[in-house]
Write a structure and sequence with these properties.
The chain is α/β, with parallel strands linked by helices. Helix content is about 40%, strand content about 20%.
C-alpha cells in the first residue's frame, strides 16, 4: 500500500484537532488497505475550479477539515487584497452543504473577514451576482454541480464575480498549501461572529434584486405579459436543487404564467432520490418531467441541475415525441433568437461579441457571423468566458451579448460572471413562446437552422477512471495521443493538431488535444478538471441529418477504440 497514505491515515488518527466521530470513522477502516489508500493517497486538490470530491474522512475527501483549510487559505489571500474584505457564501441542496457553508463563514469571521451568508440554498449564479452587487472581495459556493450524491465541492470566486482564473487560483492554492496543519485554521462560534458583525445573513432583499435583474434580460416581456406568455405551456423541474423558486419567479416576472412544476422533484433532496443523476444533460433525469409534459401538453420542458447553473430543454419533434436538446442545440437556438430580435429592433451593437469554448459547436459561431457578430473562443470552463466579460467591461472594446458552452451553461446579460440556468430557462421559454406565435416549435426552428447553416452534430464520450491507477491511465492516454498523433481517422486525414498544453492562440496552458480533420469534423481529448474522467468530444457538419449521424458515429467509434485499447 502507498506508504504516504498510511502515514497520513495514522496522523489523522493521532491528531487531537480531529473530532471523535471522524476518528471513529477512520478507525473502522483499519485493515481496509484499498479504502485507506483512496482516502489518503493525495490531498484533495484545489484546482482552478476549487475543490470537488466524495464526502468523508481523509485528505482526499471533502469534509470540515479540507473545507476549513481551503477557507483559511482563501482568508489569508483575501486579507492580502483588501484591508476590509468581505466574502459572500452560497450553497446548494447537497448533503452537508449548509454545514460546510456555515463552517467557511466562521473560519472567515475568525480571521476578521466579514462573511455574507445566504439563509438557505441559492443558485450559483446568484452568488456571482451578489459578489458584484455587494462589492465583496471574494465568493464561495458549496456545490458539486450535477455529480452523484456522494460528492460535494467548494468553488471560489474573485471580486468580479468570476470563478478564480489561473493566475488568481495559483495564488490561492499557494496560500492554502501554506496552511500545513489543522490547528492553523481559525474558527469562532456563530454567536461570536454575529455579535462582532462578521456574519451577515442574506435573504429576501437580495433575492428580489437578483430576480428583477434576471427578468430584465427578457427581450419580449411586453408581448409575454400581453398574452403570449399564457399561450406557452411549460413544465419545469429543479431536480431537487436550488432552482425551484428563482426559476419560477423569473418566468413569472417576465410574463410566463402557464408553468407546471414536477411535484416529485420540487423539494430539495441531497440524495436526488428520483433520478440516477441530477444532470439535465441526460434524458433519464427528465423521465418524470416528460410524463407530466405529456399529461399537460407541454410545449417545452426545462430542467436545472442542483446549483442551477446548467439548463437542459426538452421539446417535441415532428413525430410528437419529446427529445432532449443538446447544449449546443439549445445554445444555437438562443443565439439565433437573441441576435435576430436585437437586429429586428435595430439594437444589435456594431461591436457585439459572442463568447464560447473550444469544444462548443461551430453552429452558434456561424449564426453569429451571419449577423456580423464577432466570435471569441476560450478554454473549457465558464470562468474563461467570465474573464473575457470583465476585460470587455474594462476596455469597452466589445459589447458582450451571449456566452455559452456545450455542457449546458449559458449567460445573457452582464450582471453575473458565471453561467446562469435561471436566465437560460427564461430565454429559451421566451424563444419558444415567440416562435409558437409564428406557428413553429423549437424543433422546427432547429431544423431551419440546420437547413441554413449545415447539419451540425456533436457527441461526447467519457471514461471514469478512479483512484491512483485512474490518474495514471488518464495521463497515459494523453501522453499516447500527444506523442503519436493519428495521420488519419475514420478514413479522413487529420489536417491539424492543436495542443493547448504549451498555450495556444493566446490562451492559458491546459492539457487538451484537438484534432481537426480535412472534412471539417473534429474531436478533442480533455481530462476533466473536477471529476476522475477523461472526456472526448466529437463534432461533424453533414449535408443531411442522416449523413451527419453516420459520420459522427463512425468518428466516435474509431477514436474510442484507440482510447479504450
Amino acid at each position: 500500500m502507498n506508504q504516504l497514505a498510511v502515514e497520513r491515515y495514522e496522523a489523522w488518527l493521532a491528531d487531537p484537532s480531529i473530532d471523535a466521530a471522524t476518528r471513529e470513522e477512520l478507525a473502522a477502516l483499519r485493515g481496509n488497505e484499498k479504502e485507506i489508500e483512496d482516502r489518503f493517497y493525495r490531498e484533495l486538490e484545489f484546482g482552478t475550479g476549487g475543490l470537488r470530491g466524495v464526502m468523508g474522512a481523509g485528505t482526499n475527501r471533502l469534509n470540515v477539515y479540507t473545507v476549513g483549510k481551503a477557507t483559511q487559505g482563501l482568508a489569508n489571500w483575501t486579507l492580502g487584497k483588501s484591508s476590509q474584505p468581505s466574502v459572500v457564501i452560497a450553497h446548494d441542496s447537497r448533503n452537508n452543504s449548509p454545514e460546510f457553508a456555515l463552517d467557511a463563514a466562521l473560519v472567515l469571521a475568525a480571521n476578521g473577514v466579514k462573511a455574507y451568508l445566504f439563509k438557505s440554498l441559492r443558485p450559483t449564479p446568484q452568488l456571482s451576482f451578489a459578489v458584484r452587487a455587494l462589492g465583496a472581495a471574494s465568493g464561495i459556493v458549496i456545490t458539486a454541480s450535477h455529480n452523484p450524491p456522494e460528492y460535494n465541492g467548494y468553488k471560489a470566486y474573485g471580486s468580479d464575480g468570476c470563478q478564480l482564473v489561473p493566475a488568481d487560483a495559483e495564488e490561492v492554492i499557494g496560500a492554502i498549501q501554506a496552511v500545513t496543519s489543522f490547528d492553523q485554521v481559525k474558527r469562532i462560534s456563530r454567536e461570536e461572529a454575529e455579535a462582532q458583525g462578521l456574519l451577515h445573513w442574506l435573504g429576501d432583499e437580495e433575492d428580489r434584486d437578483y430576480i428583477r435583474t434576471v427578468a430584465a434580460q427578457s427581450l419580449n416581456s411586453g408581448l409575454l405579459k400581453g398574452g403570449l406568455g399564457k399561450d406557452l405551456t411549460v413544465v419545469y423541474t429543479p431536480l431537487h436543487g436550488s432552482g425551484n423558486m428563482p426559476v419560477r419567479e423569473a418566468l413569472a416576472e417576465a410574463g410566463l404564467s402557464n408553468v407546471y412544476i414536477v411535484p416529485e422533484q420540487e423539494q430539495p433532496d441531497g440524495y436526488f432520490s428520483t433520478v440516477k443523476s441530477p444532470n439535465p444533460e441526460e434524458r433519464d433525469a427528465f423521465a418524470l418531467a416528460i410524463k407530466l409534459g405529456q399529461e399537460v401538453g407541454a410545449d417545452i420542458i426545462v430542467g436545472t441541475d442542483p446549483d442551477c447553473d446548467r439548463m437542459g430543454a426538452v421539446v417535441r419533434n415532428n413525430d410528437g415525441e419529446y427529445v432532449v436538446l443538446t447544449g449546443n442545440q439549445s445554445g444555437a437556438i438562443m443565439v439565433n433568437y437573441l441576435l435576430g430580435t436585437l437586429k429586428e429592433r435595430g439594437q444589435l451593437p456594431a461591436n457585439g461579441v459572442l463568447v464560447k469554448t473550444i469544444v462548443t459547436s461551430e453552429m452558434g459561431a456561424d449564426i453569429a457571423a451571419s449577423y456580423g457578430v464577432k466570435v471569441v473562443n476560450t478554454l473549457t470552463g465558464f470562468k474563461y468566458i467570465g474573464e473575457k466579460m470583465t476585460q470587455y467591461e474594462r476596455n469597452g472594446e466589445q459589447t458582450f451579448l451571449f456566452g455559452y458552452e456545450e455542457s449546458y451553461g449559458y449567460l445573457a446579460g452582464t450582471y453575473a460572471r458565471d453561467k446562469d440556468a435561471v436566465v437560460a430557462s427564461l430565454l429559451i421559454c421566451e424563444a419558444a413562446a415567440y416562435y409558437k406565435s409564428q406557428g413553429k416549435t423549437l424543433y422546427d426552428v432547429l431544423l431551419e437552422l440546420y437547413a441554413q447553416y449545415g447539419f451540425y452534430l456533436e457527441h461526447l464520450e467519457s471514461r471514469t477512471l478512479k483512484g491512483v491507477d485512474g490518474v495514471q491511465q488518464i495521463a497515459g492516454i494523453m501522453q499516447d495521443w500527444r506523442a503519436n498523433p493519428p495521420v488519419e481517422v475514420a478514413g479522413t486525414r487529420v489536417a491539424r493538431v492543436l495542443d493547448y498544453l504549451p498555450g495556444l492562440d493566446g490562451l492559458p496552458s491546459e492539457n487538451v488535444l484537438k484534432y481537426l480533420l480535412e472534412d471539417g469534423s473534429w474531436f478533442c481529448l480533455r481530462p476533466s478538471g473536477t471529476e476522475p474522467k477523461i472526456k472526448v468530444y466529437f463534432a461533424v457538419r453533414g449535408q443531411s441529418l442522416s449523413k451527419a449521424k453516420d459520420a459522427i458515429g463512425l468518428l466516435a467509434k474509431s477514436v474510442m477504440e484507440r482510447v479504450d485499447s
